[in-house]
Amino acid sequence: MRVAQQAVRDLLPQRPALGDGRSRRFLRVDIPAGDEFAAELATLEALAQRATLITGAVFSNAQWRVEVDILVRRPEGTYLPVIVSNHRVARASQNHTTAVVATGRLGLGEPVDAQFRLRHHAVDGYRLGLAARALAELDLDSGWGGTIGQDRSRAFLERTASFQPALDAALHLRLPDQPRRVKECSTCRFWPRCDVELTASDDISLVLPGDRAQPYREQGIGTVKELIDAQLGEPSALAHAWREGIPLLRRVDAVTAPRADVEVDVDMEAYLDQGAYLWGVFDGQDYHAFATWEPLGGDAEAENFARFWARLQELRRQAHSEGRSFASYCWSAHGENHWMRMSARRFGGQRFADVVVPSEADVMEFIGSPDWVDMFAEVRRQLVGPYGLGLKVVAPVAGYSWADGDFDGEESVNARRVARGVDKQALETRSRLLRYNEDDCRATARVREWMRAGAPGTPPISGRRDD
Q: Which of 222, 249, 276 corresponds to the end of one domain?
């Protein structure tokens, strides 16, 4: 997050731009991190100075504290709170409009309507809701808030009133007197301490984090052992598997996987919301990478996608012309589907020597056909596990291991930045990204082979309760 916040700060204006007028008042105040009490006093002082931009603002009262990445003064004297998030906060949409301000024009430019649909995340909404309350106590609330997500170049605006009911409900909840495991625990610095306490109490949230455990708590089931003993079918089986360290269970009597005469595995790497820079294809023998290390959004990305598409569709056409069945597989098709559609929407029809970017209709025909198979959906239908069904969970059970075992999708985002250079480190990082993508392709193929063999080593769900 620190990297993201600094990247946004670097984009913020330092002074009026040409055309803004020399007489326009502009004051930017950057509050240093560190002493929280000093930061809060500095925030109040900057507001009293009527600063145009305030970064690193802090507000608190007896019940809560909130850090606001940017405060932007509006012409009428109120302030717009803007937060930086690592979430994807908006998607392009032809049917929706959202107010947007370029990050580099915050405090100088006015919002414009753009064709995006907002995506809401609870933690972001809470932050904006608290920021709005803090400003309202000072009679400085504009009624609007902004979020800068994975696309650091623009802030998406919305009214903050909609966040207040959920915030009221959260603030009126009784503070827990013991830890409960939630999704965010994996990135919390206090998790090692909570883990010890939760394990000692055998808390049910170890198996069913967050609200998933609530229906069972209401039945008086609060521990993993109680859930196992309750014999409630799949939940109890998952609890037992967690206790025994069993990663996967069979939901069906016989595990199977799709099969075709010609099979390829596909995996894609994208950089935030900017575009897809790497498409990998494994044909069962060789891995082919279609990659660009140039800036995304232009001809380099378009041509790279066109070459990937041409290769994939040529394999498909050749198989069909020979009377053979064809299937291309990926793991959780959501990302691939999105970037195939978006690439076609942005670049469709552009020609590069011997290849052409497909139309969105071409892409939709393909992803809606039997030739495009989501292996995650196949796994989820037939298997279940206490640690989820990610490729990094399932493939090791199938006997596959990654060359860079500690490398993951989040780290690949940072690696992409490094890979755009031209030095030795950049070249090494490119190789690592290609190796990671190839491993994902090969791992998907390995899972398919393992499932065709009946998923050996995977026990069935037991302890089903008769209805």
A: 249
Residues 6+ apart with CB under 8 A from 182: 205, 209, 210
**pTM of structure:** 0.75
Three-state DSSP state, 457: coil
Buried b (16+ CB within 10 A) or exposed e, 95-132: eeebbbbebebbbbeebeebebeeeeeeebbbbbbbbb
Provide the b/e sequence for 70-93 (b: ≥16 CB within 10 Å).
bbbbeeeebbbbbbbbeeebbeee
For the record, the structure tokens of 352 come out as 């590069």
Instruction: Specify the DSSP class assigned to residue 257.
Output: -
Dump pLDDT digits (tens) for 403-425: 887 776 667 777 888 898 888 99
- Residue by residue, what is the 3-state secondary structure of 10-69? HHCCCCCCCCCCCCCCCCEEECCCCCHHHHHHHHHHHHHCCCCEEEEEEEECCCCEEEEE
158 and 306: one domain?
no
Alpha-carbon gap, residue 397 to 393, rounded angstroms: 7
pLDDT in tens, 76-130: 999 999 999 988 888 888 888 999 999 999 988 889 999 898 888 888 989 999 9
Extract the tokens encoding 104.
């580099």
- Please indicate, yes or no, whether residues 245 and 272 belong to a single structural domain of this protein: no
Q: Retrieve residue 59's tokens.
A: 């507000």
Tell me: do 119 and 245 sit in the same domain. Answer: no
State how far the Cα of 164 lies from the Cα of 251, in Å rounded to an integer: 42
Residue 181 counted as domain residue = no
Which helix or strand (DSSP H or E) is residue 441 part of?
Answer: helix 424-452
Q: What confidence category does residue 464 fall into, taking pLDDT thresholds of 50, 70 and 90?
A: very low
Beta bridge partners of 68: 57
Structure tokens at 145: 């808030």
Distance CA 361, CA 424 (A): 41
Residues 6 or more apart in contact with residue 407 via CB below 8 angstroms: 415, 432, 436
Separation CA 439–CA 443 (nearest Å): 6
How many domains would you assign to the chain? 3
Q: What is the token pair recorded at 182?
A: 């939630």
Query: What tens digit of pLDDT does each residue of 111-126 get?
Result: 999 989 888 888 898 9
* Domain around 200: 192-249
